[in-house]
Amino acid sequence: MTETRDRIVDAAVDLFRVHGYTGTAMKQVVAAADAPFGSVYHHFRGGKQELAAAAIERAGVVYRDLVLGILDAEDDVVTGTRAVFDAAAAVLDATDYADVCPVATVALEVASTSEPLRAACDTVFADWIDTLAGRLEHGGGPPAAARSAAIAFISLLEGGFLLCRTARTPEAMRANGDVAVAVVAGAVDR
Amino acid sequence: MTETRDRIVDAAVDLFRVHGYTGTAMKQVVAAADAPFGSVYHHFRGGKQELAAAAIERAGVVYRDLVLGILDAEDDVVTGTRAVFDAAAAVLDATDYADVCPVATVALEVASTSEPLRAACDTVFADWIDTLAGRLEHGGGPPAAARSAAIAFISLLEGGFLLCRTARTPEAMRANGDVAVAVVAGAVDR
DNA sequence: GTCTATACTTTGATAGAC
DNA sequence: GTCTATCAAAGTATAGAC
């Protein structure tokens, strides 16, 4: 049996992904987590903000490991990049364009409103960029090029989520996959 | 004197940009527009959704013309692309990372919640992609390559807004500008 | 026709019953 | 210690006074 606290965080991640931060009510979270209403304030004294910070942190780890799992399963980072964008397009199609990155949605909502949540999102993105840059360096690229390529990789992935989700079409993720592959190849081949 | 309706829409655009759709209250909008509360429902019988649809449409036109103005001021689309990303980085820095694209924030919030608003955001993005692809074709590129490059252009710009706003650093917009320039150059040079 | 005052719902959060 | 019942505040929307 999963811990109540974990169920609440997981439910928050799912709901933030679809409705965003302000669009998600605490009552929805506890209902989805099948937990009594009071328990959320027992586990998160800081209320909604503290819960959101935990959800962002958790989503950051889950999505990073998801991408790394696909990336590392391939022989090199270039074909790995292709696989990541293909998988993203497949997931979008399979989930009716609902299952996207919750961090981006929350980040845009709270960046100018809540400093602790902005910082939590920043930590996640910085971790993603650092981890990805490390893989590209390991693939043979110089540090500066690897970092820039990692930033473009994340931007193309998030931009693809945005456009695909809005258009309900996988086209943008395919187009961005081509560009990401070229960027990664350029950062590695020297 | 500007029309009351226009002032309300402009105020909504500004507030959506900073607080998002669900994070913006109707009372904030009418206060910012310096209009009496009832007038918003006089002009927008459909309530908040109808106001948001008008705000998205308006933001789409304003931002498109802003980007085109910078792009067309340069001799070719490649140097124009450089200018657009440089300008975006400068605006972010000048506005303390608050002044970003309102369409992306709202799109991620409502894509799975409100079909009319999702459609409004889709119309805006499709218009941006079509217009940009037209400029790239005019620059000498084949249609399919121009369209893919336009999609990557928008993704890199929106991804840059996301990462820069969260990190409060212009780094991502600089890195993405380099990639966008390379993508546009590749789509035009044949 | 314009706008003020209000109705009703939902929100985040808590106090006190078990 | 866990959870139910409730609170005050804020949300959208409207009805009716000018």
Explain this structure to me?
The structure is a homodimer of 190-residue chains. The first copy, chain A, is an all-alpha fold and 190 residues long. Chain A has a domain at 56-187: Tetracycline Repressor, domain 2 (Orthogonal Bundle). Helices cover 79% and strands 0% of the residues of chain A. Chain A has nine helices and no strands. Chain A has helices at 4-19, 26-32, 37-43, 47-73, 77-94, 102-110, 115-138, 143-167, 171-188. The first copy, chain A, is elongated, with a radius of gyration of 18 Å. The termini of chain A are far apart. The mean pLDDT of chain A is 96. At the A-B interface, helix 6, helix 7, helix 8 and helix 9 of A face helix 6, helix 7, helix 8 and helix 9 of B.
